Amino acid sequence: MNYLASYTLLLIAVLFVFAKLKQQVQSPEKLILGAWAEKAWQYEKVNKPNELHRKHNPDTIAQSVKDQLGKHLIIHSAETWHFLANGKLVLRGADTVKEVSWKVKGRGHILELEYANHIIEHYNITELTPTRLVLNFDSDIQVKGIAKLTFDNLDRVTQIQQ
Q1: Which sequence spans correspond to the domains of the chain?
Q2: Which of 90, 85, 73, 99 has the alpha carbon at shortest distance from 37?
Q3: In sequence order, what DSSP letters do the residues of 49-89 get, joined into one string?
Q4: How far apart are CA 87 and CA 33, in angstroms?
Q5: How many angstroms separate the CA atoms of 146 and 7, rounded?
Q6: CA angle, corner 151, sides to 147 and 155, nearest 5?
Q7: Distance of alpha carbon 141 from alpha carbon 104, whole angstroms
């Protein structure tokens, strides 16, 4: 009987600790909110021999490759992404502003963007911290591979600098 009471107390303590930890961990839907600035594009799987040197420069890809990828992406010209709590995403480029719907799917690792014309894009969320967002997408075009978009959180980076 004494063992049963000990195990019950232990189970209650473990459940209490898990509940406290879960409260401290932010969901991806909350963590992604705010303004994010495009920091870099990186192309991870290059199948053209003359482009292999690009793998050694992780901060950039050739503008021609970015342009080719961008032909198949609606958000190609967006420089800042502002995620709003109402499920709207404002994409701001040098001379454009677009509003799309967003949601996090799966186990919090898929970002879905839906445009007014019902075109849907999916991105893998490979990293999401209070200051950094990394998205990957697969390209099925001539430059086959995986492109990685890296963003800095403008709101939190400004708070850290102050």
Answers
A1: 28-161
A2: 90
A3: GGGGGGGG-TT---HHHHHHHHTT-GGGGEEEEEE-TTSEE
A4: 10
A5: 49
A6: 165
A7: 25
d(CA 124, CA 112): 9
**Could you identify the residue written with the tokens 């898929």?**
110
pLDDT in tens, 47-87: 555 544 444 444 445 555 555 555 555 555 568 999 999 99
Instruction: Give backbone dihedrals phi and psi of 49, rounded to 5 degrees, phi first.
Output: -55, -40
How far apart CA 147 and CA 62 sit, in angstroms, is: 12
Interval 90-149: pLDDT, tens: 998 888 888 999 999 988 899 999 988 998 888 999 999 999 999 988 655 554 557 788
CATH of span 28-161: 2.40.128.280
